[in-house]
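One-letter codes give the sequence; each number marks local geometry. A record appears below:


***
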Amino acid sequence: MGLLGRKKDFTHIPVAQLQPGMHISMAERWWDHPFLLGEFTLEKESQIAVITGLGMEQVLWSPDASRCGPREAAQAAPVTPVAPEVLSAGLAQRKLRRAEGSRANDLLRRAERDHMHASSALREAFSLAKFTPAAAVQKSLAVVTEAAAAFASEGGVSIVLLSDRVSGMRLHTHAINVMLLSLMSGRFARWDEAALAELGLGALFHDVGMLRIPDAVRMKPESEWTRSERAYVQDHTGLGAKMMLDVAGFARAAQAIVAMHHECWDGSGYPFGLAGEKIPAAARHAALANRYDELCHPQGISGAISPSEALSRMYKIEHPHFDPELLTRFIKALGIYPPGTLVELSNGAIGLVTGVNRDHSVRPLVTVWQDGTRPEDAQTIDLTIEPELSITRALRESDLQPEVAHYLSPRSRTAYFYARVDPD
């Protein structure tokens, strides 16, 4: 197949010889063409009619990126150009689509901004948690209750993968990720706002006991732990439970998450070896979120696997560890292409899934790579408003040219946040 995203060579070809499957560029008419992207693979004859309607006699074509070659000159049938009013409508539609695309980019920026505000408060909370957990909980309540209200609302809410400019210490970022993923899971199970707030608070502090584990041990990759170090780390559930005992505002469901987020459905977990429904429901939700984020964003970045691979592993290999009903719901909530998945679109574009709406998990936000565009100016496409555009397949980093993988930077994006989706 070769690497995707390499710089393409274009050559001029008569419009009369175009056919579906050819990859073209509209760079020479960027100001007035009605297509979503300036470079794409033709999918149907009506697109050629639009190009003809623009009065173009030639267009730029990339042989290497095309599924087929041009029509033979002798076989080229005249294409009736679209009527001027249809073209005008198409241009108006492009303007609308670009406005919607701007809304998608705004959503990502809003999530990034809100994450910065929340992260500042939660960073301070975690600095207090080791010695004054009650103060840490109070410092966190506003962030958690606001998030719970968003996930409990009737309006849409997206889980957003933030840019690599957003970073933080591993424990802090992991805690926020697990909180958001747990809230998503709980909302999919139709928990009410009060229950979601308890779930979110417990998920946020699920690893609070890790603050009592020396950094020299905690920062080591799991594969390098000695037997005694492994036992020490596993004791973080008990240490955390003691730290949060009798803390005002820390409900029983939150306590259960801290103490039991490593229990497994088949009884193979710790610290109590509980099985099935003996494990509190909140702890079962948090266990899913915790494991998923560990697989996607481990201590050592080289050990990370793609979101799709993480879900596949949890479903096919690790499924005995999780409540089967909750696991199925968790996967449905994240969608076939969860945030962080590299994808190829039906128009030939390459992108990174950067957001998933709980109500449209199969039509995510995709930030696309375009040669010559800076990463901070990358276009984000909302597939919920592009019905004719779809994801063709998921990709691996190894499928891409190094510069494209670096541009989209899936491994360096480790933080999630949420954004409310404004109703139409």
